[in-house]
Amino acid sequence: MGDHDMLDQEEGEGRKTPGTRVFKKSCPNAKITVYVGKRDFIDHNGQVDPIDGVVLVEPDCIDEGSDKKVFVQVLAAFRHGREDLDVLGLSFRKDLYEDNLQIYPRPRSEPRYRLSKLQERLIRKLGANAHPFTFRLPGCIPSSVTLQPEAGSTTKPCGIDYEMRAFVASAPTDRPEKQSSVRLAIKKLTHASHSPHDDQPTAEVSRSFLMSGSSLQVEATLDKRMYCHGEDIKVHLIIQNRTGRTVRKIKVSARQFAEICLFSTAQYKCVVDSIESEEGLRIGQGNTLHETYTLCPTLQKNRDKRGLALDGQLRHEDTNLASSTLVDGHAPVSAEERQRLGIVVEYRIKVRCVVQFGRCGS
Predict the structure, then answer these.
(1) Which residues, listed in sequence order, are joined to residue 134 by a DSSP beta bridge?
(2) CA 288 to CA 311: how far, in whole Å?
(3) Are 156 and 79 in contact (CB under 8 A)?
(4) Cα–Cα distance for residue pair 99/120, rounded to 1 Å
(5) Using one digit for the tens of pLDDT, what is the confidence trace for 161-212?
(6) Cα 132 from Cα 49, distance rounded (Å)
(7) How many angstroms separate the CA atoms of 119 and 115, rounded?
């Protein structure tokens, strides 16, 4: 995706500060070079990290008297088909968000942002031909999501991806020439903080059986509502058996639902982790079971599942299971927002009790 560069160490008050990692990428004719400090930008409950960096523009990049300018652009798009078919006139890409900045020559009316420390250091090192840029993304746009392709696939996977471009053109809507344009993949990821006021999710179901006067009651409770990647999910079960049948097996599973909401509604459903009760379980009539089962959904357990939603994936980098889709922190997603978000991801816990001649699920 781009070369890694390291800013020189700086000395101050008799000590050295370590170098800063920088992502760098140039266009084919080497007239434009983009420098950014990171490619992962986090959405903290609607507040997204600013996308900032510097573009180094060579003095002979634009001919004298030309009306061309240098633009930086951030694009978010949903790709739902093979990229090589675009050349046949079949578009499998829908743009979801776009923002543009003209950085050279810089318009006087453009609002000025305070430079970050990285931008200041880059400008000091690169000189007067380095031009800073800053994008402020709204929190209501989708996060990067990739649908895991089948094993061995070499095509670009479906999903929502973000891209930063720097190019020479007369207007930001013009098609840029490849020789004078840079494309750098970036990611917008979700990080939701825990709230001490969140309730513990609880579900309860009661099931009656033929020729049995009483019912089987199953209650499932989670220890909290929100979990981080790699964190254990503890499912507390209370099973009260008042029927004449015996519970022989309990299966607890975590399921991911990825709903594609743009053109026609489609849903991918994947079991991302599961656990079963030990052999010999018997919950007879009049007995009650209190038990806690632990799940830990990770990508390592699910690499062979096609259609599994992942956090946006850059080439040669590992990632995680996709984060749940949130709007305004913890609010649920409405039907109108689903269309705009493209892919909505959520997780559910399912409990299944197997009894003689029947099943009971919560």
Answers:
(1) 52
(2) 41
(3) yes
(4) 23
(5) 999 999 999 999 998 888 999 999 999 988 877 766 678 899 999 988 776 6
(6) 16
(7) 6
